Amino acid sequence: ERLSASGLFGLVRSGFEEIEDVRAAELVEISLADTLMSAFAMFSLKEPSLLAFDKRRQTDDNLRTVYGIKQIPCDTQMRTTLDQVEPSEVKTLYTDVFRELQRGKELEKFVFLEGCYLLSLDGTGYFASHKIHCEACLQKVNKKTGEVTYYHQMLGGAIVHPDVKEVIPLAPEPIIKQDGETKNDCERNAAKRFFEQLRRDHPHLPLIITEDALSSNAPHIEELIKHRLHYILGVKEGDHTFLFEQVDAAHQRGQTTEIEVKGIEVTHKFRFVNQIPLNKSHPNLRVNFVEYWETRKNGKVQHFCWITDFTVTVDNVFKMALWDFAG
């Protein structure tokens, strides 16, 4: 019952009711809980815009019966009210929902490898404008025209599994001005805060962090190790020249393992080697490398490469490759 839509929506509503309303009492027409619940309903229903939701609110009784909203604000009221709510005040709701999933044993079907869960992590943008901006906006200047783009980004994470269509989102971490000038620096610094919060919320949860090639650098991997997090990270030959040279050298010495599995429609080919240095400047940081080719009957070939802290074997290499299709 607690994991039904009504049960989870009720849990979210209860959390919203605990957030302090900083507005003066005489200015409150619609409660903060109703406003937050309306915003939640808008995203839950996958409305393309606030304007589209504004049209729905006038005709859809489900907003009241299913989401329990007594008064639904218009788009302008919603913006004005939500601008005064600190995102950090909503974070506890993610852990509240997560604990219900744990108690209901829903988390068990997400176990992926050696008792661990896959946590897919990536940076994303959620607002951009040439005109509308606030003090917290990141800024990008077009070198040719001088035009300024104001935008917001965040680091988002969700527990995923290749065989499960649902995902379990965790509280995102805003990427802020102080995080740096480059995409790499911004995501790396936001990730430090994300991991610290993650371990405060879930100190013993066994996790495998999965990310793209931007994260396959020594400082980031050391941060993962510091927080007791396993990893499977993408790598690219153009960005990790030294690593691929070491793999080729190991191959010449006969130290790599190659496997080919032929199917009717698809042929899978793997090459892997354990304990090779990530780069020249961090020779003591050893990683395990997996390379994968998928060749279809029509001749189409896909090629992926990863590094991981798990020892790669003939028995686990195929499952190791599946994470990319979950993330």
What report would you give on this structure?
- The structure is a single chain.
- The chain is α+β, with helices and mostly antiparallel strands and 327 residues long.
- The chain has eleven helices and eleven strands.
- It has helices at residues 5-17, 32-44, 50-57, 62-65, 75-82, 91-103, 183-201, 218-226, 241-252, 317-321, 323-326, and strands spanning 111-113, 116-129, 138-141, 148-161, 164-175, 207-211, 230-234, 257-262, 266-279, 282-296, 301-308.
- Strands 1, 2, 3, 4, 5, 6, 7, 8, 9, 10 and 11 form an eleven-stranded mixed beta sheet that branches.
- β10 and β11 (301-308) form a beta hairpin.
Descriptive keywords:
327 residues, alpha+beta, 11-stranded mixed beta sheet, 11 helices
Spell the H/E element sequence.
HHHHHHEEEEEHEHEHEEEEHH
* Rg measurement, Å: 23 Å
- Termini separation: 29 Å
Q: What composes the largest sheet?
A: 11 strands, mixed
- Helical/strand content category: alpha+beta
Average pLDDT number: 91
Characterize the overall form.
globular
- Count of alpha and pi helical runs: 11
